């Protein structure tokens, strides 16, 4: 049994002596920044995600000055933050206040006091669970600003982009860009400095997948083809900087992989004795769907093991599903697939050995994974 990295009270990180010395609670924030004057910590995930969003939008280091609210705000949702470019920090925070992501904003001389949008501490809705699943998945898929992540053909997918690494092989990259074009064609075209390059990129959408992958391979560079050549890398990073496009990327990922997750959950109900409602199980299967699309290739193996082993709870059901689906992946990726999903199930890095490889994937968003039930699962499964 792997012990979870964090302790929780409801949805909030809570305690005084963390298991690790100073673990990350988000890609750019560490637990030590949230320690209160009484040496304890109590952090709602809404605050964590809001601060990380501010960091990406500001484009430079943002630090937590302190988290003691006093009489200014709600415990667990507030922090005073500072940045080298305080005017840019104010601009971004004001934008988030107008969008409703912040409920309170008080600029000071060298820092800004903010309160993240209130959210329940003891329950998690379906929409919030999808948001957690999206961020946990991006924690594995990307480093740095996930919306500007551009990856070459290291894995045979041609080219991958954004927080969920949509790509040519699965068709999701073209699907996303067709949606971005509908959001604003003018802004999208403007991300490409040369009109001829835009025309080449736009024409690529209508090519067969094999030609798209070949194009991606020809424009890949670096060790193992993990990088993308300029100017294409720069063009795509510009796309990822547009706020409207970032919002559409999140919506696209939730809809695309949420739909695949729904089908996986429905099928598991036909073979497993325990309906899946646990947040960690939900997020593990969401991550599986972003990597491997579905459980289809391993359904026979999953069903056989469930019948033989008679799992005692939903986590055991999902672990069987993740293990068997990982074993149907190409050998070089089996251990990585399994380590990711089981890491989510247990809320901590998980060592896996499959296909002659070993992997132990870490994730800065284990801080979002308390053990709790997702509300509204029946409605989710009944939706189209």
Describe this protein's structure.
- It is a single chain.
- This protein has 384 residues and is α+β, with helices and mostly antiparallel strands.
- It has three domains: 8-116, no CATH class; 154-245, no CATH class; 252-382.
- The protein has 14 helices and 18 strands.
- It has a four-stranded antiparallel sheet, with helices on one face. A three-stranded antiparallel sheet has the order 1-2-5.
- A hairpin with a 2-residue loop joins strand 1 (8-9) and strand 2.
- Helix 3 crosses helix 10 (279-292), helix 10 runs antiparallel to helix 13 and helix 12 (314-326) runs antiparallel to helix 13 (331-346).
- It is globular.
- The chain starts with 7 loop residues before the first strand and ends with a helix.
- 42% of the residues are buried.
Measured as a percent range, the helix fraction is 40-55%
Total count of helical runs of at least 4 residues: 14
Choose one word for the global shape: globular
> What's the β-strand tally?
18
The spatial strand order of the largest sheet comes to 6-7-9-8
Instruction: Quote the distance from N terminus to C terminus.
Output: 37 Å
Most strands sheet? 4 strands, antiparallel
Which consecutive residue ranges, at least 5 long each, have pLDDT under 50?
none
Rounded radius of gyration (Å): 21 Å
Round the mean pLDDT to the nearest integer and report it.
94
Oligomer: single chain
Estimated share of beta-strand residues: 15-25%
Total domains, how many? 3
Q: Decide which structural class fits the backbone.
A: alpha+beta
Secondary structure elements and their pairing?
Elements: E1 8-9, E2 12-15, E3 24-26, E4 29-30, E5 41-43, H1 45-58, E6 62-66, E7 78-83, H2 86-99, E8 102-107, E9 112-116, E10 124-125, H3 126-141, E11 150-151, E12 160-161, E13 166-167, H4 172-183, H5 185-190, H6 195-204, H7 209-218, E14 220-221, E15 227-228, H8 232-241, H9 243-271, H10 279-292, H11 299-309, H12 314-326, H13 331-346, E16 350-354, E17 357-361, E18 374-375, H14 377-382
Parallel strand pairs: 10-18
Antiparallel strand pairs: 1-2, 2-5, 3-4, 6-7, 7-9, 8-9, 11-12, 12-13, 14-15, 16-17
Helix pairs in contact: 3-10, 4-9, 9-10, 10-12, 10-13, 11-12, 12-13
């Amino acid at each position: 049994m792997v012990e979870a990295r964090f302790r929780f009270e409801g949805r909030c990180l809570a305690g005084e002596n963390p298991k690790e010395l100073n673990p990350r609670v988000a890609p750019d924030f560490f637990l030590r920044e949230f320690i209160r004057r009484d040496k304890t910590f109590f952090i709602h995930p809404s605050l964590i995600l809001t601060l990380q969003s501010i960091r990406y939008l500001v484009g430079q280091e943002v630090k937590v000055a302190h988290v003691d609210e006093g009489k200014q705000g709600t415990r667990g949702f507030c922090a005073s933050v500072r940045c080298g470019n305080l005017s840019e920090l104010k601009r971004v925070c004001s934008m988030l206040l107008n969008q409703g992501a912040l409920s309170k904003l008080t600029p000071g001389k060298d820092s800004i006091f903010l309160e993240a949008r209130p959210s329940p501490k003891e329950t998690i809705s379906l929409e919030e669970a999808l948001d957690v699943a999206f961020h946990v998945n991006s924690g594995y898929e990307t480093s740095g600003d996930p919306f500007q992540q551009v990856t070459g053909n290291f894995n045979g997918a041609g080219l991958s982009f954004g927080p969920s690494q949509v790509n040519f092989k699965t068709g999701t990259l073209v699907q996303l860009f067709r949606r971005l074009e509908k959001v604003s064609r003018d802004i999208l075209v403007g991300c490409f400095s040369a009109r001829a390059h835009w025309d080449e990129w736009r024409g690529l959408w209508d090519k067969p997948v094999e030609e798209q992958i070949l194009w991606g391979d020809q424009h890949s560079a670096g060790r193992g083809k993990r990088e993308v050549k300029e100017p294409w890398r720069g063009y795509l990073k510009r796309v990822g900087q547009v706020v409207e496009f970032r919002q559409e990327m999140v919506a696209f990922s939730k809809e695309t992989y949420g739909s695949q997750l729904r089908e996986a959950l429905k099928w598991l109900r036909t073979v497993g004795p325990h309906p899946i409602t646990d947040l960690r199980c939900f997020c593990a299967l969401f991550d599986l769907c972003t990597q491997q699309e579905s459980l289809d290739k391993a359904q026979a193996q999953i069903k056989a093991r469930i019948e033989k082993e008679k799992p005692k709870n939903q986590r055991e059901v999902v672990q069987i599903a993740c293990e068997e689906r990982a074993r149907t992946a190409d050998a070089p990726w089996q251990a990585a697939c399994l380590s990711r999903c089981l890491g989510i199930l247990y809320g901590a890095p998980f060592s896996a050995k499959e296909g002659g490889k070993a992997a132990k994937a870490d994730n800065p968003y284990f801080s979002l994974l308390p053990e709790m039930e997702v509300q509204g699962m029946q409605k989710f499964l009944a939706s189209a």
